[in-house]
Amino acid sequence: MAAVDSFQLLYREIARSCSCYVETLALVGACYTVSKAVIFIRDCYSLIRLHFIPRLVSHRDLSQQYGQWALVCGASEAIAKAYAEELARHGICLILISSDITNLADTAKAISDTYGVEAILIEADFSQGPSASKPIKDAISSKDIGFIVNSLDGSLDLSQDFTDLSESVVWDTINRNIVAATLVTRLALPTMVERGKGAVVNISAGHCLCPTSRKAAVCASTAFLDNFSRSLHYEYGHRGVFVQSLLPFRVSSRGSEGYGPAGWLVPSPQVYASHAFSTLGVSHRTTGYWPHTIQFRLVQCMPEWVWMLGSRVFTRAT
Hints:
Layout: H1 2-51, H2 62-65, E1 69-73, H3 78-89, E2 93-98, H4 105-115, E3 119-123, H5 134-140, E4 145-151, H6 167-195, E5 198-203, H7 216-236, E6 241-246, E7 254-255, E8 258-259, H8 269-278, E9 285-286, H9 290-301, H10 304-317
Parallel strand pairs: 1-2, 1-4, 2-3, 4-5, 5-6, 6-9
Antiparallel strand pairs: 7-8
Helix pairs in contact: 3-4, 3-8, 6-7
Subcellular location: Mitochondrion
Family: Belongs to the short-chain dehydrogenases/reductases (SDR) family. 17-beta-HSD 3 subfamily.
Organism: Cyprinus carpio carpio
């Protein structure tokens, strides 16, 4: 009995001496909880402000705000093609650039007939060096270029070990994803800066946040486009040019029987482009689609080893 009384007395003494620390820890815990609640509320507000409110407001006169023509590089890509159609829907004329324009002729004609805008096709092979820029220079020389849209080449998104890639694939990755975006932007941006208005939209990919197993080259390309956009924003944003980095996650791809099954997590290119287009002029770096923004936040909170484990499983399966 004496031992029990001694233990209770010792416990009371320890509790009395540690009471100030308990109160301090409780205060720290409360502050942490409040800070997380504030961050959550802020993120919810940002989600609504970016992805929902712009879709409710009336459409702007984009040709007056930015310019009458759009230069779309990588126009054969599904997202770029859908984004170009959104521009045409708002009365913007198009200059579509691709390394192979045979599949774009019908698209250009359909856009022209549907929306009553001009659509010019330019075939440019950026592996040829400076000679690839001549037809682009000739096309934009007398145009009021208001938009530059550069898209990542999805056909190069291969799940292969880096040492298994052929030299031609490595060169194509550099030329189509890095050289093309850099050169096209360099050709058209000076007139935008001179006029004090314009928009540059670089369509990269959400997995630029973390390294991805068996996709070293294309993953590095996505990171380049994202950082290229952010650097241009700080360099020319104050001079009237809006620069946006679009970071979509998975979008439905086209197969032999049309586009694959789409859902709210994997939208069709048209649905994605419609949502992404509404963020133009609102956010400089966004996924462009609210379910992808939720994925983006989860990836940011995820330890890199967890992401790498998941990417290895996914790439091995594909």
